[in-house]
Amino acid sequence: MSEKIEGLHHITAVSGPAKENYDFYTGKLGLRFTKKTINFDDPFTHHLYYGNYEATPGSAITFFPWQGVEQGLPNTGEATVVSYAVPTGSLDFWKEHLVAEGIEIINEEGRFGDKSILFKDVEGMKNEIVESEGVEDIRPQSNGKIAPKDAIRGFYGTTLSLADISRTAELLQEFGWQKHGKENNITRYTSKPENNLGTAIDLKIETGLQGWFGRGSVHHIAFRVPDDNAQQKWRQKLLKMGFMPTPVQDRQYFRSIYFREPGGVLFEIATDTPGFTKDEPLESLGQELKLPPWHEQHRSEIEKRLPEL
Ligand code: ZN
């Protein structure tokens, strides 16, 4: 019996121009820019990482700024909302702050008793801020405009828009996630990672979406395992269950396997180790362009072709 998979590790999406993405996530949402690197499979494209101060698992929202890609629209078989956790009592600040930044709040009804607000990022990707218990002690980034007590601590979770949730629900249960409840067309599954981040996945029956993949679309969501050993066990288990996980990919800050879940969303299982301080100290995360060793020989050309942030 494999150990449980507790919590999300990161979420990766596609953005437009890197600078606009950087300004939104560091300036308006106040996240820390935790790693400036490249898409290892497409080295002349940035891979931008944002998170809490310590870049802990469960806090990394990452983007491939694919300039030439057209605007995406929400589609069935995708993650369609990225939800962030803030300490209890912070939501009034966030409402005021987002409005002051010119961001429209499109929903503040919440679900399952949560207090939350829904809005869009620069690319139209749906973001949500949710008051969340047990996250206040996580060290936040502070950008001067957002007080540390109110700052985003990491993920609350995500929403998957699916035609049929049953087999995705079974898979989450295999991971060890528990059914929390059902509200209208949304069924929530939760898990209990030690840091209380990335704990909720909402499976939303949404058959009518006729969008397409592009800027503002989530590329994949990654779940956490502690180390390579746990990842290997899960890889074997997924093979037995009939999934087709990729071989292990070295992403420098974690190692990854990917597979398509039954509802169509690309899932990844990523290791907590070695983490984002592998190649630079905590105090200066995100300041220098970091390349994996196999791309170092092309550094000068890569630096020339990457856009300014
Ligand atoms: Zn990933």
Write the layout of secondary structure elements.
Layout: E1 8-15, H1 18-28, E2 32-39, E3 42-51, E4 60-65, E5 73-75, E6 78-87, H2 91-100, E7 116-120, E8 126-132, E9 154-162, H3 166-175, E10 178-183, E11 186-190, E12 200-205, E13 210-212, E14 218-225, H4 228-240, E15 249-250, E16 255-260, E17 266-271, H5 299-305
Parallel strand pairs: 1-4, 6-8, 9-12, 14-17
Antiparallel strand pairs: 1-14, 2-3, 3-4, 5-13, 6-9, 7-8, 10-11, 11-12, 15-16, 16-17
Bound molecules: zinc ion (ZN).
Zinc ion is lined by residues 10, 12, 220, 222, 256, 268.
Task: Identify the notable features of this structure and list them briefly.
single chain, 309 residues, alpha+beta, 2,3-Dihydroxybiphenyl 1,2-Dioxygenase, domain 1, eight-stranded mixed sheet, seven-stranded mixed sheet, 17 strands, globular, binds zinc ion
Average residue pLDDT: 96
User: What small molecules accompany the polymer chains?
Assistant: zinc ion
Give the terminus-to-terminus CA distance.
46 Å
Structural class by SSE content: alpha+beta
Low-pLDDT residue intervals, each spanning 5 or more residues: none
Oligomer: single chain
Q: Any idea of the CATH class? A: Alpha Beta
- The second-level CATH architecture is Roll
**H/E topology pattern:** EHEEEEEHEEEHEEEEEHEEEH
CATH domain fold name = 2,3-Dihydroxybiphenyl 1,2-Dioxygenase, domain 1
Q: Can you identify the CATH superfamily?
A: 2,3-Dihydroxybiphenyl 1,2-Dioxygenase, domain 1
Helical proportion?
10-25%
Counted beta strands: 17
Radius of gyration: 18 Å
Tally of separate domains: 1
